[in-house]
Amino acid sequence: MRKIKIENVKRLSGFKSGHFPPTKVGSSGNSYIQSISENEIKDEIQEVYENTKSILNLKRRDIQKESDAGGGSIENSIFRYFIEINQHDKNPALAVITRRLEIRVSRKELPADFNDIFPVQINEIVIPIDGEVDFDDLVEKFENLADEVGGELKEDDDKGIIVYRTTENLTITISTEDKEMIITPNVSLGCLQLIDYAAEGLKKLQDRN
């Protein structure tokens, strides 16, 4: 599960009135962005750590916590949580904040207040695609699906991107270059609700040919 946020460097907590945003993309600009965001990342990791202990009833020895200027992580037997920040690869004055959550147990083992562990909610599910992908064949299948059950399809073979929005406003994006399928609801959900929403939507598609 993942959330990618694009943030203006000036909005990062460590940016001061006398500072100037980077003007070039490179290692120095990336290091600057990471350094001025270090404290807010540490604060978020600490908050996730404390919530993890409380909600999952874990001890300090059960949790691995790490944080530095580039990001941080929390790992335990239930989940892995990562946050990292880097300079945007095209706009030097923007930062890309990526949060990833990997669930390590079944859905039914997660407590009802699991969402409350995370101060920032994840908004998409990412599923890796193994093996080769036939772009034309995949587009044809989605075209047939759209004809049968409705929905909206967009595809771009130059970028290797297929985007299908269901009639229930669930967006499925397939990247043949990155070899991943991204499932995104068009409503704001906690991570548990995101899992349930995506599972229900995929099951309806799976029932089709």
Q: What does it look like?
A:
The chain has 209 residues and is of the alpha+beta class. It contains four helices and ten strands, in the order βααβββββαββββα. The strands form two sheets. A five-stranded antiparallel β-sheet has the order 1-5-4-3-2. Strands 6-10-9-8-7 form a five-stranded antiparallel β-sheet, covered by helices on one side. The longest helix is centred in the N-terminal third of the chain and has 19 residues, at 38-56. The protein is globular. The two termini are 27 Å apart. 21% of the residues are buried. The model has no long low-confidence stretch (mean pLDDT 92).
Topology record:
Elements: E1 2-8, H1 27-36, H2 38-56, E2 64-68, E3 71-75, E4 79-87, E5 94-103, E6 125-128, H3 135-149, E7 152-156, E8 161-165, E9 170-175, E10 180-185, H4 191-206
Antiparallel strand pairs: 1-5, 2-3, 3-4, 4-5, 6-10, 7-8, 8-9, 9-10
